[in-house]
Amino acid sequence: MPADLPASLPAPIRDSWQSHLALGITGHRASNPSFAAHAAAIATALEALFARIDTIAAGLPGARGAVRLHSLLVDGTDQVAAELALGRGWELAVPLPFGADLNAAINAHPASAGDAAALLASRPVADPAVTARADAIRAITARAQLFELAHRDAEVEALWLATLADPEDRVAARAFDALASDNVALAGRVMIERTDLMVAVWDGKVANLPGGTGHTVTAALTMGAPVLLIDPARPDAWHILTRPEELGHLRRTGADTAAPDMARLEAIIRQAVVAEGWSPAQLAREQWRPRSARRFGLYRRIERVFSGEGGAFASLRLEFEAPEAIAAGSGAGVIAAAEALPGGDGAVAARLARDVLPMFAWADGIASRLADAYRSGMCVNFVLAALAVIVGLAFLPTGLSEFKWAFAGVELLLLAGILALTMAGSRRGWHRRWFAMRRVAEYLRHAPALLLLGVARPTGRWPRPGGSGGEAEWPEHFARHALRDVGLPQVRVTRDYLRAGLRTAVLPHVAAQRAYHAAKAHRLEAVHHRLDRTAATCFVLAVASVLAYLVIKGAGVAGIIPKSLAADLSPVFTFLGVAFPTLGANLAGIRYFGDFERFAAISRVAAERLAGIEARMTLLLSGTPAALTYGAAADLIHALDEAVVEEIASWQAVFGAKHLALPA
User: Fold this and answer.
1) Could you tell me which of 166, 160, 206 has the C-alpha nearest to residue 179?
2) pLDDT digit string, tens, across residues 241-251
3) Phi, psi (rounded to 5 degrees) for 93
4) Is residue 197 helix, strand or coil?
5) Is the confidence at residue 435, as pLDDT, over 80?
6) Contact (CB, 8 A) for 578 and 585
7) b vs e for 203-214, b when ≥16 Cβ sit within 10 Å of the residue's Cβ?
8) Of the chain's two ends, which shows fewer C-beta atoms within 10 Å, N or C?
């Protein structure tokens, strides 16, 4: 347990959560003339850079896990950087574009089909240089965490062997180059998604070769990852790029001779691993409780009464799933699916059960209680405001004018209750804390889909909520590092793995969330319309009461009824003329504050998006085997992630400015 984390924190946070700095490396192969001419200087520059990164990280506040370097382990830059990283005690995560055996064989660069076949069959190879290259790759991959994109290995291997058997077969060569480049670009995307900073050794000459260094640099900048660019001819004079448009300025005079921007490097590293003004120890303030609070049930009661679903006065107390029970409870299905994946990583399944799902349950339970407190608090304020007006005038119809002071005293108490509740909600930060904990819970809700398929939201594309400093962004920081700590699954990604992952772990989650949002939209639409009709009815009754009084008054003047009747009933009609509009206005206030219509629209959109993802996933699983690629599966997981993030942004836009306030 880290020394600065209190024992009262939930075990998954206290024992497992930590931030990690994640780097990526891309660069020229050993055969590239620019690299070959300056190999020693490049290695020296990388060693100095890595030492500087370690120094910067060590000087930042808080504890964190080991630096993690992501690399495709191509010969040249990648392997030099990987050896340096391992020497510094860093973790090495490797998204391979092919299965490990095929990757080693291809990157050993055999010149003949015979040597290629021997490599694939683990037989002796005639060319000792090929053997040395293959041995070097195997030695370093043995010390790395491998994520092998092996789903198209059969096609890649067949085309590769065909090109070696007949070097003049341009059709096979083009097909191999296209397929191999596509896989390399996919592996590069996996790497970029997980990095805070991409280090690139690139001469800036070729940027349009899929999977190449220039392509990876452009992709990283497009996805929001800053790039530390090292010119192989001047490796000690690196500079940092943050926008793809900056690539058009690389050759300007002085751009490659400027001193390294150490301050900018430190800022990037700090932003990656530190949430300013926040530490995980602060989460000890949040206490998970097993059930909802009865005193904060008014919002749910209003939903139940006006939804028309029945049971208007039944108990609405909710039981929250305990963090330590979720793996055997609602999370049992996804844990079983993770454990049953063909060739799956048992460590990831274990982390889901031990850490990720319990963190979700913890955040979800706290967020639900805070939501009840905040939303019910505002509803109580509207109810108390209406009662204050009605009670303040209740002496009129009751004929107790001599006790008007008592009615005024009760009115004062009701108004004081509004002030006390508003001050309590503001002081305890119900609104702010609800927003934060709900974001954590929603980011973690679909974590199994991301983690099992090796997909991550790029660092540069995480939401940046408004607020003061890193404290406003701590939920994103917390969730990002909770997922990053688990890391890439160490699996051989085959089509069987993809099929099982989508069918048993992801599709049920998407279907359940789609059904939830569709039902929620229907319920909230009903609440909105019934509240609207009830508020309108109150105003109609107010008009009717005023008209009734005028009719009675007129009838008295006309001598149809006694004139005194209007005077006798005047206090009653005065009371009704005020009470009905007050009730209507406060019901309208609850409807406005609850924004049931907009929330229904948000859930309707979410349900439609999830239905589209569900349909696409079903089509992919029922289509031809060749269509089921890692890229297609990852695109669907990203679509799911985007739907979640946009739904969070939408409800924050609704409630963001609606702090607990006086109902005025």
Assistant:
1) 160
2) 999 998 888 76
3) -110, 130
4) strand
5) yes
6) no
7) bbeeeeebbbbb
8) C
Please report which helix (H) or strand (E) contains residue 26, including its range.
strand 22-27
Q: Which two tokens stand for residue 55?
A: 């120094």
Q: Which residues, at least 6 apart from 472, have a Cβ–Cβ distance to it below 8 Å?
A: 465, 466
**Residues with Cβ < 8 Å from 10, sequence gap 6 or more?**
283, 288, 323, 358, 359, 362
Angstrom CA distances, 53 to 273, 400, 571, 636, stand at: 12, 79, 79, 35
Q: Across the chain, what does the average pLDDT equal?
A: 92
Q: Which amino acid makes up residue 104?
A: A
The helix/strand/coil state of 148 is strand
CA distances from 557 to 33, 240, 362, 543, 567 (A): 109, 89, 70, 21, 12
Q: What's the half-sphere exposure (Cβ side, CA atoms, 13 Å) at 401?
A: 5
The answer to whether 221 and 242 have CB atoms below 8 angstroms apart is yes
CB atoms < 10 A from the CB of 270, how many?
A: 17
Query: Model-level pTM greater than 0.90?
Result: yes
For residues 440 and 17, the answer to whether their CB atoms sit within 8 Å is no
Concatenating the DSSP letter of every residue in 213-261 gives: HHHHHHHHHHTT--EEEEETTEEEEEEEE-SGGGGGGTTSTTTTTSPP-
